[in-house]
Structures are given as C-alpha cells and as structure tokens.
Design goal:
The chain is of the alpha+beta class and about 425 residues long. The chain is built from 15 helices and 16 strands. The strands form 3 sheets. The protein has an 8-stranded mixed beta sheet, with helices on both faces. A 5-stranded mixed beta sheet has the order 13-12-14-15-16, sandwiched between helices. It has a 3-stranded antiparallel beta sheet with strand order 2-4-3. The radius of gyration is 27 Å and the shape is elongated. Bound molecules: histidyl-adenosine monophosphate. The site of histidyl-adenosine monophosphate has 27 residues, from β6, β10, β11 and α11.
Amino acid sequence: MITKPRGTEDVLPKDSKLWQYIENTARDVCDLFGYKEIRTPVFEHTELFQRGVGDTTDVVQKEMYTFEDKGGRSITLKPEGTATLARSYIENSLYANPQPTKLCYIIPCFRYEKPQSGRLREFHQFGIECFGASSPSTDAEVISLASMFLQKLGLTGISLQLNSIGCPVCKKDYNEKLRAYFEDYKSELCPTCLERLEKNPMRIIDCKSEICSRIAEKAPKMVDHLCAECHDHFEETKERLDNMGIEYTVNPDIVRGLDYYTKTVFEFVSDCLGAQSTVCGGGRYSGLIEQLGGKPADGIGFAAGLERLILVLKAQQGEQAGGDNTPDLFVAAMGNDADKTAQKLIFDLRKEGVHAQQDLCGRSLKAQMKYADKLSAKYSIVIGDDEIAAGKCNIKNMSNGETAEVELSVDSLIAKIKE
Ligand code: HAM
C-alpha cells in the first residue's frame, strides 16, 4: 500500500470543520483590521529564500525542499510566507498604492524537519504582513491582530513573549560581544554553530542542540544593548500594548529562527503543547525589501501554525472543537414515490438553508432511522403514500423523542425546526 510521506497529514472530514473555523476566524479578524488576502505560488526560485530568509538559518541550511526543474532552475517549495510576499510586493509594485500595504495569507509550507507532535514537513500557516510603515503603532497593531485572532478562537493559556533584536547598527556591536562570549566555548559548540560564530553569532542563541542552548543561556542579551532609536521604538511599542490592555512578558531569549528580523520580535506560546509550544511567531523586518531588490520599505508580520492551533483547540475543547455539521432534518421514505417526494422536499429545504439528508443506499425504514441517529440528525420525519396524500407528517425531535404533527411543507417544517 502507498502511504503518505513522513511528516504530512490528511485532513479528514471529521476535522475539516475545525480547519474552516480557524480559517474563517482568521479571515474575519483580517477584515476588521483591513488586511486583504494575497495568493502566491507554492514554489519559488531558491535564491529568494537564500537571500530573504538567510543562508545561516536552519530553514535554509537544512530544511528546504529544493529541486531542479526540467528547465534546470533551482526551485524550492515555500518554507514560509514572508520572503514570498516581499517578492510579490516588489514585483507587483504594491508600494505604489497608499501605504501601508496590509496583506494576509493562508498557505502550505514545507520544511524537512524531524517530525513530531506539532512539527510537520508539510504544515499550514495563517499569516499577515504589513509593508511600508515603520511606526511602533504598526508593531502594536500587528500584535493586537494576532492577540484578537487567538482570543476569538477561544484559546486559553496563551502568553505573549516580546523582545527587540535591534537594527543593523546596534546588532553590529552586539554581535562582537556575542562573538567574544562564544569564543570561550568554541570547543563545545556544534559544527553548525562554529560556522555561525563567524557569520552570524546571534543564530547560536536559536540552536536546537542541548549543549549550544545551555551555553547560550548566559550570553549577553540584545535587549540590553539596543541603540537609542531601537530602545525608543521598543518602549513605545510596549506602551501601546499596555494601552490596549494586551499582556506580554519581555523575553530576551526570543531571537526567532529567520535572518530578516530587526527590532520587535514576538511569539505567542501555549502552555499545553510541550516542546513545539509556539503557536504564532513574528516580528519587524527593515532590510528585507531592499535586500530583494526593492526600494527600502519596512515590513512587519507574523504567522501562526494551523496544525498547532488545532492541537491546542482539541486539547482544550475536545473533538467537537470548531462546531459540527449535523443535519437539521432527516427525511426517511417508504417506497420509491415517497423517496422522490423526499428528494424534492430536501432540495427545497436546502434552498432555504436547512441542512437536510435522506438515505441514498436503499436502506429499509428501520435502517434509515438508525442512519439518521448515526448522522446525529436533530429532527426526522417519515413519509410514505399516506403522508403524501394527507399532506401531513409526524416530526420527531431526535434528542428527546417528542413528536408533533406538521404539514408536509417547507414552511411548516422550517417553523418547527427553528422553534
Ligand atoms: P516561524 O516561526 O518559522 O515564522 O513559523 C511561524 C509558525 O509556523 C510557528 O510559530 C509554528 O506555529 C508554525 N510552524 C513552523 N514550523 C512548523 C512545522 N515544522 N510544523 C508545524 N508548524 C510549524 C515564520 O515562518 C515567519 N515567516 C513569520 C513571520 C511573518 N514573521 C514576519 N512575518
């Protein structure tokens, strides 16, 4: 038997309502904040991520799904959305519209990681990016959107961790301090981090190896070495979050795993996910657009992992999280004529927005009623020649067994169902 590739998942019908619930909540919140959806290709030129995400990151060094296409081009399945959106912002001259440009997306992402609970090789992100605004009010708005989204989903036990990782000016001095600190532990660092020590020592703080992370614990913190501009930006962002009543903890160890970040970075962390506890991560990036060949423009955004949100929702609200799609009415029929009448009645009820079902497999009446139970139908009726002749039928409330006589018409059935 052919099975799905390791680290991928089928979304089965029992879970699709939950996916739609999350996606609809994301779209509703984006509408409120004026973020418009953008759809971009699943694959891009590899160079976009090498230049955008950064070639000292785990994502680029170890995790990309890269292949040569039949035309000999190096192609990569999107490992994330930000670099792609920056490319599209430049390529489609979105900067020419009144700024900022507020975009949102729901995309599949691909990373060759070691699969475990909450960590997949194909996963899905809901994300937003705001291009062309550098004010701290933008940072606060983006974070407030993420906060409202998570809150509207009904999640509990989520905390917001905030940090600033400065700009190229203050990062330069800080990197020297970091380099000096990690030099003393050179013999203990993993081979990847030894390379990072030269190119980008901040990446060592984000290393997943136990030894490197233990060494990194006592490393100097960026938040203590911000330049005046970055310091003020961070203070103003925090003040604005305070003003909106959005709680956060400043966590100097949040450096994020991608190279484009500057200034504000943040993560929303769940207390019920174990190792893969970050449900949403993001931050500001000031140099990305320029690095990809555009005119300098700031950006800030975040992405939330849908599979992780689903794990939290199921843990907190059970399998019914996201609601169900059970029929309002099951119409059981006796005989072929009644079955035809039932089908027409159901079609008319559906036109009016009623979720009605009937048997399609030639079941006996008894088996039809069992099937109605299995579908968890809220009401049922049985129609045969007598009911059709009389224009009346009995409607049964499937949860308490109560029955009542109603006219066999769309209006009367709807009136009873909505009672
Ligand atoms: P990221 O932190 O790499 O950021 O990913 C964002 C979220 O995607 C994570 O918090 C997590 O919920 C989910 N995620 C990441 N990797 C996996 C995986 N292997 N399996 C399941 N879920 C995963 C970014 O991708 C940035 N582009 C976010 C951003 C947007 N920053 C600014 N704008």
